[in-house]
Design brief:
The complex is a heterodimer of chains A (235) and B (156). By secondary structure, chain A is an alpha+beta fold. Chain A is built from nine helices and five strands, in the order ααββααβαββαααα. Helix content of chain A is 59%, strand content 15%. A five-stranded antiparallel beta sheet of chain A has the order 2-1-5-4-3, with helices on both faces. The chains are: A alpha+beta (235), B alpha+beta (156).
């Protein structure tokens, strides 16, 4: 039983439909992680996602250290976020650089990644990804941190559930697959901008994302276009 | 019918999750419908649903004031005399004391309000109000995603 008036809800959604352009689930998840990041006040946040029956990959990261955290774990096939996914429970590390569970991780991490916490994002009871946050200094995670992280993961789960209710499952999977695949293009575009304009990775990604938002385009599409232009300049 | 119930369950769970994140006792929702009427959608529990229904019936309350002013409205104690409280609403929802109403916006316009509430009266700290605003953005994302599903198309 719910405490919702279905008729009023449907009438209101109908009104919203007339004025709201459809935005993809990946764009929504990027915005949601941004909100989570701003609310937590931690150094950064990210979302990793698993293709059906496959390994975890990173979908959203708020900044360069966050991308290094997710990239390093994927490279090694281990880390706190991967453990959170595999064990379907919260996993924390107060200082991932000296954590004996993942001794090789520190070498691949951005120096600003020290404390890490990840919780599973579930659909039904099955984990489909992880919501991760990190701190730039050693940090003692407590129960309130974990409960808050689970709360945000719950909101992201509702967003995913809404997208599944709104679209065919296959269309949703296609959008997520597209995003996962295009992370490679985004990484290459960041490298190109860093070299061309002498930027840090963070500056390059922030600029790319801002330009995409300002022009109401997907970061991946803008990145692909930049790489096309870059290739043209080099010819 | 099943699909509409599925929508209701999703909004119900979302309101519960948002209330948990803010550390509030509950969250409730009012939205403008396709005839430009402000409608009580419901809440994460029965108190939230009643809080919204009463405001819809009497045309007064923090949610309505938030929508009219287009800004956050904080009420430390609903039972306080006007203009600090809304005793007319409080008399009919005795379990709700402190209310935070944040306007919900799409890029184009106001679409309704998200309302957090607590059973005990208290002052709303600015950080909590800002968090409520950001959580309102998440609520709008869920609503926009649901609005684009086909079963709700057409006129009522």
């Amino acid at each position: 039983m719910t405490h919702i008036d279905p008729e009023a809800l449907v009438a209101s959604l109908r009104k919203l439909r007339t004025t709201s352009p459809a935005t993809g689930i990946v764009h929504q998840l990027e915005r949601a992680v941004d909100v989570v990041n701003s609310l937590f006040g931690y150094s950064g946040a990210g979302l990793m996602f698993a293709e059906e029956g496959k390994d975890l990959r990173y979908l959203v990261a708020t900044d360069d250290p966050g991308r290094s955290l997710e990239g390093a774990q994927l490279h090694l096939g281990q880390g706190p976020c991967i453990s959170a996914f595999e064990e379907n429970c919260a996993v924390t590390s107060n200082d991932v650089c000296v954590d004996p569970r993942w001794p090789k991780l520190a070498d691949l991490l951005h120096p600003e990644v020290r404390a890490v916490a990840g919780v599973p994002v579930r659909l039904g009871s099955e984990p489909v990804g992880t919501l991760n946050v990190y701190q730039a200094t050693v940090y003692q995670w407590d129960e309130s941190d974990i409960q808050a992280l689970y709360g945000y993961a719950d909101v992201i789960e509702q967003l995913l559930a809404a997208a599944m209710a709104a679209e065919e499952k296959s269309a949703l999977a296609e959008q997520l697959q597209y995003a996962l695949d295009y992370r490679v293009v985004i990484e290459r575009a960041i490298g190109y901008l860093m070299g061309k304009h002498d930027l840090t990775a963070t500056q390059a990604f922030t600029g790319l994302r801002k330009q995409a938002r300002d022009s109401r385009r997907r970061v991946a599409d803008l990145a692909a276009e930049l790489l096309g232009e870059g290739a043209g300049e080099m010819r | 019918m099943t699909q509409v119930l599925e929508l209701s369950r999703l909004i119900d769970r979302t309101l519960g999750a948002l209330a948990d994140v803010l550390g509030a006792d509950g969250a409730a929702l009012m939205l403008i419908d396709d005839h430009d009427r402000l409608r009580a959608i419901g809440g994460s529990d029965d108190h939230g649903r009643r809080l919204e229904l009463i405001q819809e019936q009497i045309g007064s309350g923090p949610a309505i004031e938030s929508l009219v002013r287009g800004e956050d409205v904080t009420v430390d104690d609903l039972r306080a005399a006007r203009p600090l409280g809304f005793p007319g609403v409080a008399a009919r929802v005795s379990e709700v004391r402190a209310v935070l109403s944040v306007p919900l916006r799409t890029e184009e316009r106001l679409i309704g309000t998200l309302n957090f509430y607590d059973r005990m009266s208290h002052e709303w700290q600015p950080a909590k109000v800002r968090a409520g605003e950001r959580l309102g953005e998440l609520m709008v994302m869920v609503l926009q995603t649901l609005a684009n599903r086909s079963p709700i198309s057409g006129q009522s």
